[in-house]
Amino acid sequence: MTYPDTKNKGKGESGGQSAKLSPKEDFSQWYHELLMTGEIIDNRYPVKGMCVWFPFGFAIKKNVYGIIRQLLDPDHQETLFPLMIPENEFMKEAQHIKGFEEEVYWVTCGGTTPLEVKLALRPTSETAIYPMFKLWIRSHADMPLRIYQIVNTFRYETKHTRPLIRLREITSFKEAHTVHATWEEAAEQVEVAIKRYSEFYRRLAIPFLVSRRPSWDKFPGADYTTAIDVIMPDGKTLQVGTAHHLGSTFAKTYEITYEAEDGEQKLVNQTCYGISERCIAALISVHGDDKGLALPWEVAPVQVVIVPILLGDKEKVLEVCRDLLRILQQAGIRVELDTSDERPGAKFYKWEMKGVPIRLEVGPRDIEKGVVTVVRRDAEKLTLPREGLAQALVREAERLQAALYQRAEAFANSRIREVASIDEARAQTEAGVALVPWCEKEECGHQLEDLVEANMLGEPQYKSFSPAACAVCGKLTDKRTYMARQY
Amino acid sequence: MTYPDTKNKGKGESGGQSAKLSPKEDFSQWYHELLMTGEIIDNRYPVKGMCVWFPFGFAIKKNVYGIIRQLLDPDHQETLFPLMIPENEFMKEAQHIKGFEEEVYWVTCGGTTPLEVKLALRPTSETAIYPMFKLWIRSHADMPLRIYQIVNTFRYETKHTRPLIRLREITSFKEAHTVHATWEEAAEQVEVAIKRYSEFYRRLAIPFLVSRRPSWDKFPGADYTTAIDVIMPDGKTLQVGTAHHLGSTFAKTYEITYEAEDGEQKLVNQTCYGISERCIAALISVHGDDKGLALPWEVAPVQVVIVPILLGDKEKVLEVCRDLLRILQQAGIRVELDTSDERPGAKFYKWEMKGVPIRLEVGPRDIEKGVVTVVRRDAEKLTLPREGLAQALVREAERLQAALYQRAEAFANSRIREVASIDEARAQTEAGVALVPWCEKEECGHQLEDLVEANMLGEPQYKSFSPAACAVCGKLTDKRTYMARQY
Question: What angle do CA A135, A95, B47 make, to 5 degrees?
């Protein structure tokens, strides 16, 4: 597939490649423009909250979800369950339905015939999958069972929708569901899930926070929820992954039991964990800049672009470029040679917009010296010998990955601050994330949210703190909570 | 992923691995049992016509659709469009809506709120995609545009449903849509589509028929439809791929125009072509036998299984088996070593059921001689030296592929017969496909269908025939039509 094919597809009233991008400082505007100009998402589909993936955006998504599959496949099995859930199954689990009933799309007619049983479009698939788990689980030998699916899910969002972030059709929800004999094994699985997700975001060079959500913000039906958040350029946080310990709540409702070794029938314990295309929103937002997308090597549809500098013996320049193209392709690098009629400057601009990690410039002087000029997407410029170029580029890609991560981490760190009081927390959450002493009483938590006018992300995981006074009641505590304005 | 993990997942009231499969002769029963026992599809989901993919079935599907992607990706771009189509867009194209209105699922409520505009779940995506094409196409330079998506689609089937064959949720519809400047270029694209699909079915070792559907059976809105059918074990045909020349029908409705080189605005010409999970139904049905699945090498989730024959020095046998496992894995072969407690006979039975192309048996006597015993899924048995085994197995897999195809082709040929009269056609379509002289008059065609009590698949493509009398009116014609009972 050659991506230059799509060069005109993003044009239209609101976009087009020749349009200059707003500065990233003006984040919301920049984000919307970049989705169109970078050919990620076309937001002109005639239903609010439902978007079209451009081929280039789809290719990024495919690479990103390829990493998720790599991380899960060693001990999870991919499956596929139906989209529609009959009303009676959907309505069985009381806490769960309470959490979702305002958001569910209902199918009520087939052709011109009203359906006897209304069908819900999955907002998430617990109520589709667990009636089948009841049939699949017989004995302790059937566990642990770990499955996942990547599917479209639907939520009738009444709030302002935003492409990739708040959608009515989530096109690519990766949801994993696991079944275990004991509560402890399920708790361990939640840790495993968070570890895998952490590895996933590290591979995308995206720094993140891990928090245990407060009880009033956990998944409907869960014992507890651990979540991953990313700090976006405007200082608001985006929840980009969650893992839920479901205990035996759904097992009771759907009668999922197993015969223990002593012959007794016991309820199973379950977890579920999910990631949606919000991971793409984070990817674009964290790394992009005023010039456009900046994609990590592993997920870039085009990893290297070769731009011939057509001076002097043009045929000779093109010949060298074609040689390089072939050599890099053979090395498994996703590479394009841009032989279009545009001037080099226009090509640089275009491929920077597309986030291509490494640009090669090849002109007569480079050829004379046996080198190529290498420009990384973070503007680092160097010269490399043509001999052994493929390996050198892979090493350079690693350096770029480290640089992307460092830049992102520096930004994230600059937006997190420990605070002691409600006033400080309010000021800090204007710009980022506040780390606030909290005694863990629910009452103090609600007061914090009200007074700070921000959300509690919950207790940071894998961290410990020295005692400080709860920002509400003043009681000494070694606990903290993250607070932020959330997407 | 280790498939033995799923060994108990297919159990239940109606299935389970220990159940003996009905003979393939009793095709309908055999098919339903095999889907469950072979762990392809769980048909116990509580909505008619909607099924769950078991992990093993999903893995087959993933490999099969991997071939489709390989065949399309060189000149098509993968995209993703929304599932829901607003009523006003859906209702624009009159012929099209007439073809689908009885089959469309309608979403009418979001939460407890009735929607202002009803939303159709795509039965196919022309009416979702073409309003966007209107925005994407500006000039002749934007064409040809070739995109595809693999998505779930929905049809409210009122006929008897059948897993993978007649579904209310088609989980994996690959639909391609192309746009061209001229009618002739679109016609060429239909030929390209049929060529790609032909290659696809050849790689699955499945023989097929290519026909131009009669005008009364073309896609709603198309100029013409070319279709691919497979003869199933019971002699009925299954339509497993279609390519439609849409002319400018949708271009008119959705105002998709381009600026020609002379500056004039012209209507585009379009095609679309699709394949659904019916390709998996064909795969299973054509190659399977009384012992279970028989999978072509390229799509088998497990290509080779190693069964240790634990006699004499058991540790030595296991050591050799583990060595082989590592060597074959390193060669990129999907291989399992079955070290479960079952006896070899039970293991043979299990992996034959799963359709594994090649089984290796390794016992003390094999080890002594430096060989392994190789049993192909078509029961060919041979001995191969351990030295250079990986390459030898790949060659053996090619022979197996040829054998699978030959067997399937012999069956298909035995079920096609040229006939001269309506009576002969009626007799032949009891058992298979009749090739009937037809003058191409619509009136004669309808009479043929009525009198033969079978469907007209249409005119065979890429074939020529000598003159014969139309089976209805007796007029001399060099045209034929396939006739068959269809799924």
Answer: 40
Dig out the tokens for A271 from the structure.
């977890």
Confirm if B89 and B97 have CB atoms less than 8 A apart.
Answer: no
- Which fold would CATH assign to domain A302-399? Rossmann fold (3.40.50)
CB within 8 Å: A132 and B6: no
pLDDT in tens, B309-336: 999 999 999 999 999 999 999 999 999 9
Sequence spans of domains, chain A: 59-285, 302-399, 416-484
CA–CA dist A86, A106 (Å, integer): 10
Distances (CA, A) of A117 to A89, A107, B43: 11, 9, 19
- What integer is the mean pLDDT of A55-63? 98
* Residues A308 and A317 sit within 8 Å (Cβ to Cβ): yes
> B115-127 as b/e, with b when 16 or more CB fall inside 10 Å?
beebbbbbbbbbb
Q: Smallest Cβ distance to B108: which of A52, A108, A151?
A: A108
* Dist. CA B277–CA B63, nearest whole Å: 12
Quick count: other Cβ atoms within 10 Å of Cβ A191?
14
ipTM: 0.95
Mention every residue, 6+ apart, whose C-beta is less than 8 A from residue B67.
B200, B203, B204, B298, B299
DSSP states of B182-243? SHHHHHHHHHHHHHHHHHHHHHTT---EEEE--GGGS-TT-SEEEEEEEE-TTS-EEEEEEE
Rg (CA), chain A: 25
- CA B99 centroid distance within chain: 23
**CATH homologous superfamily of domain B302-403?**
Anticodon-binding domain (3.40.50.800)
Residue B472 DSSP label? T
What is the chain A residue with the closest CA to B79?
A55
What dotted CATH number matches A59-285?
A: 3.30.930.10
Burial status of residue B32 (CB atoms within 10 A of its CB: 0-12, 13-18, 19 or more)? middle
Q: Domain B416-484: give its CATH code.
A: 3.30.110.30
Test the B interface: residue of A3, A5, A8, A9 with most B CBs within 10 Å: A9
* CA B441/CA B95 separation, integer angstroms: 22
Geometric angle at alpha carbon A268, from A263 and A270, rounded to 5° = 160
Cis peptide before B144 (omega within 30 of 0): yes
The single-letter DSSP state of residue B140 is G
Q: Is the pTM of this model over 0.80?
A: yes
Percent of chain A with pLDDT over 90: 93
Q: Answer whether A229's CB lies under 8 Å from A235's CB.
A: no
Inter-chain touch B109–A111, beta carbons under 8 Å:
no
| Residues in chain B within 8 Å Cβ distance of A112 | 101-102
Residue B196's φ and ψ, nearest 5 degrees, are -65, -40
Interface test with A, best of B44, B60, B83 (most A CBs within 10 A): B83
∠ CA A217-A219-A222, rounded to 5°: 115
CA proximity to A391, closest of A333, A457, A340: A333
N residues, chain B: 487
Q: How far is CA B68 from CA A60, A70, A215, B125, in A?
A: 20, 21, 47, 19
A chain contacts of residue B78, beta-carbon cutoff 8 Å = 55, 58-59, 62
Radius of gyration of chain B (CA): 25
Residue B432 has what pLDDT?
98
Q: What is the DSSP string of A244-288?
A: EEEETHHHHHHT-EEE-TTS-EEE-EEEEEEE-THHHHHHHHHH-
**DSSP 8-class letter at B32:** H
B44:A102 CB<8 A:
no
Give pLDDT tens digits for B91-115: 998 888 888 889 999 999 999 999 9
